[in-house]
Write a structure and sequence with these properties.
The longest helix is centred in the middle third of the chain and has 21 residues, at 214-234. This protein is an alpha+beta fold. The strands form 3 sheets. A 4-stranded antiparallel beta sheet has the order 1-2-4-3. Helices cover 50% and strands 8% of the residues. The protein is built from 20 helices and 10 strands. Helix 14 packs antiparallel against helix 15 (336-350).
């Protein structure tokens, strides 16, 4: 919410009444700081002078903020040299035609190695329009977040952000109470133009609506940006997502976020914003899970279809939903280590006690012993049958297979009594046994670091 103030050092206050104003505050603070302009941060509002926001200053800030994402900025760097190879000339000419505004400004100019002064002068004269048109139309800048046609527009009847914007002339009646246009209500604000600067990330960008106080709101989002930058510097060749860094940061530092918080996400392929609501319970689960990076990958299931494992795991944690489907999926793929982590995740989500982990340790030891005694072809066959019966929810078949294995190997399965009593509530025992039916080097569940199979008389 915006509040005008008379007879004060700052004439405008922004109150973080919902996430849009919170994000506007974060972006606005970056702009004012970059332009060396005065502002004030209070617990409940952000204060500044409205006249400090100008088109020229905004575009100057945007150009510096996105830097080499602007083709004219890359062009300036390319033209710093005195001599150019044929390949460099080709790259420069490609930049001159890289988007609509570049084509319009540079027209029929072609770089030949001797006309760099002409091109640089053209950039200098047209810098504002080059910045504005690229910024508002580029899919990873303003156009990702809002209607490009509304940049710099005054407050409108409908919000400029995607997911909130509608064509008022066509749809406001349909969206209004009793189909009366005059009853349609929406909220827009020119400060929403600063929202793109509040989000952090690439294809999926995040904003943490940590509005415990305005200062904390600004600091938390800056911490996320700093952590993402640190990870990129440490591993420059590895793609780092904002989502991964967010949850890794929560996991590694309780001081980062240790309470319920709303996180807004914007995926470049979707024309709306989404919300992640991170509960304190979910944060505790993340902390106890100890490792997070093994989940940060995707599996190709079809020509254009991928299973985003990280997203699915976080969906389980955020919604306190069991990971059974993921466990069964990776059981079929013999991903023993990953399945062991997912089983542990299940225990944390379902709040299983020490009795379950003891039973799982026994189930693990039994399975490893069975795998050692079986010929390889039989081991593979039994493991496949166990996995299939779990995927099909055919628990009677699973118990029958356990009985066959016990008879064949002459090994007693003490953990099986819990499965007979209540299979669904003790499913992690079954998952652990099926997962451990391999002859790979032993992969222990993380909660069993001190496990020693020799302590069990099997």
């Amino acid at each position: 919410m915006i509040k005008k103030v008379n007879d004060a050092l700052f004439n405008t206050h922004v109150i973080p009444s919902d996430w849009r104003y919170s994000a506007a505050i974060v972006g606005l603070e970056k702009y004012l700081y970059n332009q060396n302009l005065e502002y004030e941060i209070k617990d409940e509002y952000f204060a500044f002078n409205q006249e400090d926001i100008t088109r020229e200053r905004f575009l100057e800030f945007a150009e510096e903020y996105y830097s080499l994402s602007f083709p004219h900025k890359r062009l300036e760097i390319q033209l710093r040299k005195d001599e150019f190879s044929q390949e460099e000339k080709k790259q420069i000419n490609e930049l001159l035609k890289s988007n609509a505004i570049m084509k319009k400004i540079f027209g029929k100019i072609k770089f030949d190695g001797d006309n760099k002064v002409e091109i640089l002068e053209c950039i200098r004269k047209n810098r504002l329009i080059l910045t504005q048109e690229t910024f508002r139309n580029k899919s990873d800048m303003y156009a990702d977040f809002a209607n490009p046609n509304l940049l710099f527009e005054e407050k409108r009847d409908c919000c400029r952000l995607w997911g909130y914007y509608i064509d008022g002339a066509r749809k406001s009646k349909n969206l209004s109470f009793a189909f009366r246009t005059e009853s349609f209500a929406s909220e827009d604000c020119q400060l929403f133009d600063f929202i793109p600067f509040a989000f952090c990330g690439e294809r999926e960008s995040l904003f943490i609506n940590d509005n415990y106080s305005v200062k904390q709101l600004i600091d938390t989002n800056q911490q996320l940006i700093d952590k993402l930058r640190e990870e990129k510097e440490k591993k420059p060749d590895k793609y780092q997502t904002a989502r991964k860094i967010l949850f890794k940061s929560i996991q590694e530092s309780s001081a980062f976020i240790d309470y319920d918080v709303e996180v807004m996400t914007k995926n470049r392929n979707r024309d709306f914003f989404e919300t992640l609501y991170i509960r304190k319970r979910s944060i505790d689960i993340l902390s106890e899970l100890e490792v997070y990076e093994p989940f940060c990958f995707s599996v190709q299931l079809g020509k254009e279809y991928y299973l985003d494992v990280q997203k699915e795991v976080m969906d389980c944690i955020l919604n306190l939903k069991d990971a059974d489907e993921l466990i069964e999926f990776f059981l079929k793929r013999d991903s023993e280590y990953l399945v062991s982590l997912l089983i542990k995740l299940n225990l944390l989500i379902k709040e299983r006690g020490i009795n379950m982990t003891k039973g799982m340790t026994v189930a693990y030891a039994c399975a490893k012993k069975v795998a050692e005694r079986l010929p390889e072809n039989k081991r593979k066959s039994y493991r496949q049958r166990l996995t299939s019966s779990l995927a099909l929810k055919d628990y009677s078949a699973f118990l029958d297979i356990l009985a066959q294995l016990s008879n064949y190997t002459d090994i007693q399965f003490d953990f099986v009594y819990d499965l007979f009593e209540n299979f669904e509530d003790n499913k992690e025992l079954a998952y652990t046994f099926a997962n451990a039916m391999t002859k790979k080097s032993k992969v222990f569940l993380q909660s069993f670091d001190n496990y020693n199979s020799s302590q069990y008389d099997i």
